[in-house]
Amino acid sequence: MTARTTLRLLFAGILVTMLFVTAKASLMQPIWAWQGLAAADPDHWWTLATLADAYCGFLTFYAWVFYKEPGLASRLGWLAGILLLGNIAMASYVLLQLARLRDSEPVHYLLLRPEHR
Predict the structure, then answer these.
(1) Over residues 1-9, mean pLDDT
(2) Is residue 96's pLDDT more than 80?
(3) Does the structure show a pLDDT above 80 at 99?
(4) How many C-beta atoms surround the C-beta of residue 93 within 10 A?
(5) Mean of pLDDT values over 79-106
(6) Dist CA 11 CA 109 (whole Å)
(7) How far is residue 40 CA from its own chain's centroid?
(8) What is the CA radius of gyration of the chain?
(9) What would the pLDDT profile of 36-76 be if each residue is shown by its tens digit?
(10) What is the average pLDDT score of the chain?
(11) Given CA atoms 47, 65, 81, 92 in this order, what sign does their dihedral have?
(12) Cα 97 to the center of its chain, rounded Å
């Protein structure tokens, strides 16, 4: 399977997932009625939709990490970090990539593998 096909499947899956959870939450409860975990009987439809949105965002970011990282161990390590720590791991990854960028290099090099600069 090509990288392009893999990305199409990944992002089609994310789109379908988000459309499903958003539609389900909308049908079960209007968003303006959501009280989160503060209610006596905690609302869960929009909580689940928000959680799905966060993890779909983590996977979107990880697609870039997967492209950037050359080795299986680093790819798996960053996947675990992102799924467990979310934006803490994501911010750490970007800061690490910025630290590796030479002062003379343009910022868009941040997005590319070193061999493609």
Answers:
(1) 94
(2) yes
(3) yes
(4) 19
(5) 96
(6) 24
(7) 31
(8) 18
(9) 767 666 678 888 899 999 999 999 999 999 999 999 999 99
(10) 92
(11) negative
(12) 17
Tell me how far CA of residue 82 lies from CA of 21, 52, 57, 62, in angstroms: 22, 14, 10, 7
What three-state secondary structure class fits 105? Answer: coil
Question: If you ran DSSP here, which 8-state letter would residue 106 be given?
Answer: -
**What does the block give as tokens for 71?**
């080795």
Greatest C-alpha distance within the chain: 57
Here the tokens at position 26 are 């909308």
Handedness of CA 38, 39, 44, 46 (dihedral sign): negative
Helix spans in the chain (H): 3-28, 45-68, 72-85, 87-100
Q: Quote the CA–CA distance of 49 and 87 in Å, as a whole number.
A: 18
The pLDDT of residue 44 is 83
Total residues belonging to the chain? 117
Q: Sign of the CA dihedral 73, 75, 78, 79?
A: negative
- State residue 35's pLDDT score: 78
Q: What would the two tokens of residue 88 be?
A: 């803490």
